[in-house]
Structure prediction request, 254 residues.
Amino acid sequence: MSAGSSGNANAKAAANLQLEGLIEATRATLARVAAEFAPAVFASSLAAEDMVLTDLILRNRLGIDIFTLETGRLHAETLGMLDKIEQVYDYKVTPYRPEPAAVDAYVAQNGKNAFYDSVEMRKECCRIRKIEPLNRALAGNKSWVTGQRRAQSVTRAELHVQEDDAAHGMQKFNPLADWSEQDVWDYIRANDVPYNPLHDQGYPSIGCEPCTRAIQPGEDVRAGRWWWENPESKECGLHMVDGKLIRIKSQAAT
Prediction:
């Protein structure tokens, strides 16, 4: 074996070892959530990161319920993931939808696509279609889990694995905080995890159809989300209070 081949093999072995460490740490976090912070729920966007967590939760039969926010404006490919999860894991993800009256009022007053007009209009649309349904989904639970990663955007750079979500009166867990995009895809490929076909079409981050575009090589992974806005404003509000990201108090893992 040449020196170059040996070096590549060593690097691959080190990468595999690192990923195994991340997987074990994530599995341990999820098990702790299920054991110590029940009832717990997982808010899945049905994108790649969330499919990693879905796989870990369901394969390990952890007592964490999974829900998604069915906004009424999702891609057909994203909605198709609900059927795919049921086929592969024999599990039905619970969809939470916006109140029809609130959607109708927004559209009647502002227009169906008023979110393009201003950040305020976009955030109001997100409030109706995402935040209010999220509040219903979280009600009565002790903790919730997300698939957020630090490397996803500047707005998530200070993400912690465990946080005190005072706004909802519960603990919030981000088990993939330390994972890279490469780690996510290495796990998906190694474990044959189903994923949204839009990821193969240039969509590393997927939200509502009119608010998401494919990105170009070299662009930030979330550049296709609300692409008409500045990066600092690119959060839908699910992880914000009074316009600020919920990074109130991190909790050390025990």
Remarks:
- Residues 239-250 have pLDDT under 50 and may be disordered.
- The helical segments are 3-36, 48-59, 76-89, 100-110, 119-138, 181-190.
- Residues 3-36 form the longest helix (34 residues).
